[in-house]
Amino acid sequence: MRRARARRAGTILVVAGLCALAGCEGLPRLAPNILPAMGTPDGHPPAVRVFFATDRAPTGATAIGGRFSGGRSRTVTYGEALVSIPADHRCGRIERPGLLEVESPARHVKLMDVKVVGNSRSDDGADAFIEALQAQVARSSRREVLVFVHGYASPFDDMLRRTAQLAHDLQFDGVPVLYSWPSEGLLLSYLVDASNSEWTVPYFARFLDLLVRRSGAEHIHVIGHSMGTRVVSRGVRDYMALRGGRGGLAGASGRRGTATDSPYPLDQVILAAADMDVDIFERDYVPSLLEAARRTTIYMSRKDKALGISLQLNGYDRLGRTDLPNVDLDDLKRIEVVDATEYDNDLVGHYYYASNPAVLADLRRVLRGEAPQERELQREFIYRMRRHQ
Question: Is residue 78 domain-resident?
Fold first, then answer.
């Protein structure tokens, strides 16, 4: 595989500042439709209930926003947030106020409430979080949980909004959960965030363990974006080692029909615009994903400029810009590579997974467990996967 010629890190990181989305006005309108397990369907204003876990350092702030910094914590904090969906919402967009505009839940995706309900410092620190999560899962027709793990340069509050927008636009009939690792939220902190994405792995692995054992969900899905795919891939590998080290967790919850009773503790794992070394992914993480997840779907785009910059910085092909040339065809029956290049129309080509209606429509079908062939027949998406040629 071709190795790129590295450029000066400073130049690369400055170029990475081109992170704004473009073309939002052409997005279709999607009136708020909050399904029971996702939030408050009868609420005024309509709001998505987002559960969260984070190993970010708390700031001590008491206001709704700014509760967590980009610094590290050795404690995982659990909580909930309410995020409004505006009446004139456009699919794929996070509506925010202009410079002279007052933020309003009627017009913007706004944090309505953020509350902490526990932490990992004590043995029962997650109990209140789990009880609330179990009650919400019970309102889901398929008893589903969707865990979102963000990428680099991602402030905590913004990622609560992203989780709510993503779950809403997917019309996910389950409970949205944000796992937020300590990203500094700054474009010039790529290397710091890379270190923090490694720091967070054991906390995330134990959080997966907690969800599988105690959430009561039958289907646990995980979406990782950009650098967050490193957290997901490493975390799944460490979780499977933890699971094996305990002699297996199957049936550990004592309940029937939960994720612990499945041969795969995770249902769908989605890696979108993955900022990962593809060689390392193939060698180190494919085996554990095959063991842990019913299916893994990788969304890639050759127009992803952000990953092009990452290629220059890291020197090797990124998973989010290429296929899996060294993975056996038999394994690829449960690991799909979806070429989204044709639908990648944002400025840096890195956010199509949550901003393009066609990609969102395909992702919705992935979460429903539809195979690639089924989705192709519906002509909602175009697949250019090596094994189909």
Answer: yes
- In-domain check, residue 13: no
Quote the percentage of the chain above a pLDDT of 70. 85
CA–CA separation, 30 vs 42, rounded Å? Answer: 17
Structural domain boundaries, residue 238: 32-388
How many CB atoms are closer than 10 A to CB 12?
Answer: 18
- Residue 126's Cα: distance from chain center in Å? 21
Please write the tens of the pLDDT for every residue from 64-96.
999 999 999 999 999 999 999 999 999 999 999
Q: How far, in Å, CA of 255 to CA of 261, rounded?
A: 8
Residue 337, in any domain of the structure: yes
**Closest listed residue to residue 238, CA positions, set 291, 278, 276:** 291
What does the angle CA 332 – CA 333 – CA 338 come to, to the nearest 5 degrees?
65
Query: Would residue 24 count as lying in a domain?
Result: no
Residue with tokens 């792995």, as numbered in its chain: 201
Domain count, the chain: 1
- Identify whether the C-beta of residue 226 lies closer than 8 Å to the C-beta of residue 273: yes
Lowest mean pLDDT segment, chosen from 8-22, 57-71, 152-166, 320-334: 8-22
What is the domain-level CATH number for residue 49? Answer: 3.40.50.1820
49-61 burial code (b ≥16 CB/10 A, e <16): bbbbbbbbbeeee
Q: State whether residue 299 is helix, strand or coil.
A: strand
Tokens of 200: 């967070």
Catalogue the E-assigned strands of the chain. Answer: 39-40, 47-58, 68-84, 111-119, 144-149, 175-180, 219-225, 266-272, 293-300, 335-339
pTM equals 0.88
